[in-house]
Amino acid sequence: MRALGAPTFLLTPLLHLHLRIFASPHPRTFSLSPPLIKISHFCSLSRPVAKITSMAEIITTAAATAGKHVAGEWFSVPELRLRDHRFTVPLDYSVNDFTSPKISVFAREVVTVGKEEQHLPYLLYLQGGPGLSTPLTPSSMSQFKSSEELTDYLRHFRADNIVNDAEFIRKRLVPDSKPWTVLGQSYGGFCAVTYLSFAPQGLKQVLLTGGIPPIGSGCTADCVYRACFEQVMHQNGKYYKRFPQDIEIVREVVNHLAESEGGGVPLPSGGILTPRGLQLLGLSGLGSSTGFERLHYLFERVWDPILVPGAQKKISCHFLSAYERWLDFDSNPLYALMHESIYCQGDSSKWSAQRIRAENDGQFDAIKAVKEGRPVLFTGEMIFPWLFDEIHSLRPFKDAAQLLAEKKDWPPLYDIASLKNNKVPVAAAVYYEDMYVNFKLVMETASQIAGIRLWITNEYMHSGLRDGGGQVLDHLLGMLNGKKPIF
């Protein structure tokens, strides 16, 4: 689930939704004829007390729930016309509309110039992570009086309520409440599969790009990380093969950090950069098409130049600042808090990535790797409990993170019986070497979705929609519209 850029392509109308949780901090720009809507949340801070009913009941009631919708005036950017919408929606769809606290959802509608008043079909775009467009910032979340209250609030920010919000808005925005097409990228694809499970009546077609989730009951995080650690090691090997000079540079940095007072170097925001923290750069650096180069260029400027003979060697301010920008937890703490919960249905994650990392016989121990003369391995899309000690913006939420890791009563996100009886046309781009969404697990889930059409390719990485948006979308739409052979 990665931050992506801005492909350009033409479609029939598109709706861009960023709902509740996983939206990129770098919004995607499209050139297209359909409306595009981008959604984020402005959240109220009162704590709901709710009993979760079945997903089907919740989504059925969601469409009938009264809510306020305010549409703004059209305005212009080059070649596009935009209009902002705000919807008042329930925080908790499982309780009476008058009982639930409300949150305000912001939406931006985008059409090509001259098509503002046309009745065009919609394509809902659900973007991936790890950035979070919701304004649940460190400062706003600090308004909660306890970690328990914050945890109780955050439980409403998963794929089930993303679907609730989408259905709420579809009923109020789409003429005659017609079904729309959904494009789900990365975590957005996970949400689209939840949509297929519980509200297929709202869907005309579904397009998935690098976003087919594991759908087993309990918590599937352990199997995800076992598979992903293997792919992460493969990506590390490819990185160091391309930039062999970085093997020694990274070892030097690890040694410097380990030998520094307190086991690390202070970060500009007040946290600390440790050897294990350094390895987090793999989160963005190893899984996208340009990630290797960006990571290499970052390490090219890791040291301050020695201007005075005998001066102490220091990590540059440029590197330390860039490190924090790469992680971006100061503006997007919700990703760190909620990431493992996206794999939970009726069981807790128990800090899955940390436990599975420990199973890898010290291969990801940076200090041990240096002592043994091995390359230091970067980690991938994994959140560890020590982040809430070492990253300044996350420290206030350490107790809440622990409560979320222990939480067991997560509601269901998928309905395998419904997926096996799926009637909605679905096409998916599956990236063979995807570091974030494991190919083997994808194929297991795909076998459970009736009628899904797969395009399996190693031409693109997880960032395929950014790197080749026109080609990827054309291929998927062609599969659904009969222009591409299925077999």
Number of helices: 20
How many DSSP E strands? 15
Mean pLDDT across every amino acid position? 85
Compute the separation of the termini in Å. 29 Å
**Could you describe the largest sheet, including whether it forms a barrel?**
6 strands, parallel
Unreliable segments of 5+ consecutive residues = 1-54, 60-64
Placed side by side, the strands forming the largest sheet appear as 1-7-8-9-14-15
Oligomer: single chain
Strand content: 5-15%
What best-fitting shape do the alpha-carbon axes yield? globular
Structural class: alpha/beta
CA gyration radius, whole angstroms: 23 Å
Helix content: 25-40%
Keywords: Hydrolase, Signal
Protein name: AB hydrolase-1 domain-containing protein
Domain AB hydrolase-1: 144-233
Family: Belongs to the peptidase S33 family.
Mind sketching the topology for me?
Blueprint: E1 15-17, E2 39-43, H1 55-64, E3 69-71, E4 75-77, E5 80-90, E6 102-112, E7 123-126, H2 138-141, H3 147-154, H4 159-173, E8 180-185, H5 187-198, E9 203-209, E10 218-219, H6 221-242, H7 245-259, E11 265-266, E12 272-273, H8 275-278, H9 282-285, H10 291-300, H11 317-327, H12 333-338, E13 344-345, H13 352-358, H14 366-371, H15 387-390, H16 398-406, H17 416-420, E14 426-431, H18 439-446, E15 452-457, H19 464-467, H20 469-481
Parallel strand pairs: 1-7, 7-8, 8-9, 9-14, 14-15
Antiparallel strand pairs: 2-6, 3-5, 4-5, 5-6, 10-13, 11-12
